[in-house]
Write a structure and sequence with these properties.
about 80 residues, mainly alpha
């Protein structure tokens, strides 16, 4: 139970941080929701690198990154 609460707290902090940082989903270079391309634009890297890292993190975390991605699709405004 503590693991689930800790994961929820970390996820909430990530969502709040990304929305306050001014990251916006990119409609011009989106594959699913534009989240990875928005993150890439904010940090000055390529969207494909962020997409690969997202898939690797999803595999390593048992899919909790997929939940974060879906929530970011809902929370982040579209450009």
């Amino acid at each position: 139970m503590l693991t689930g609460l800790a994961l929820f707290a970390v996820l909430a902090l990530i969502l709040i941080g990304f929305s306050r940082a001014g990251i916006r989903r990119q409609s011009s270079d989106e594959v699913l929701g534009g989240v990875c391309s928005g993150i890439a634009r904010h940090f000055g890297t390529t969207p494909n690198l962020v997409r690969v890292l997202t898939v690797l993190l999803a595999l390593c975390t048992g899919g909790s990154v997929v939940l974060a991605y879906i929530l970011l699709c809902i929370v982040l405004p579209k450009d």
